[in-house]
Amino acid sequence: MKPNANTRFIDYFEYAMYLLAVICFIYFFLQGNRPKMLEPVLIAAVLAGIRALVRWTRIEMFPALRISVLAFIFITMFLANEFNFYSLVPYMDKIEHVLSGGVLFYVGSLILMHITKDERPSEPRLKTAVYFSLYFSVAMAGPLGDIRVRHRPALRSSKPAGQT
Questions:
Q1: pLDDT range class, residue 160, cuts 50, 70, 90
Q2: Which pTM value belongs to this model?
């Protein structure tokens, strides 16, 4: 894919996330906050892992999928975890859950495009793509989000789940 203004913006956004991870690491290192120091390392590892997976599979991520994945990582990992937006934004988990459905819609579109790349295009293909992607996102976001939301308080608390 030839770089254009959209893909360059997405590249710069990704590089800015790496830079922000380095800044957060240095800041929390100077503060002596070891648990917060690990989060920027994990963010950089996730970004690098996605890039490596895309290169390894040779599947081209279209711009809408790439920007939605990067935005989701920024919101969930930087804003919610690193900058503690859970205490500032009510229902942050619910917002993340809805956003994950949007990301999964694009993942479903990518899967369908990859599965049908050798087939002849036909008229109902757009409708099929929308329905497949929608059902894929609903099917994946429901169970994955439910697991994540149910187990997050237990992981964050120093007390065992169920105790107050």
A1: very low
A2: 0.74
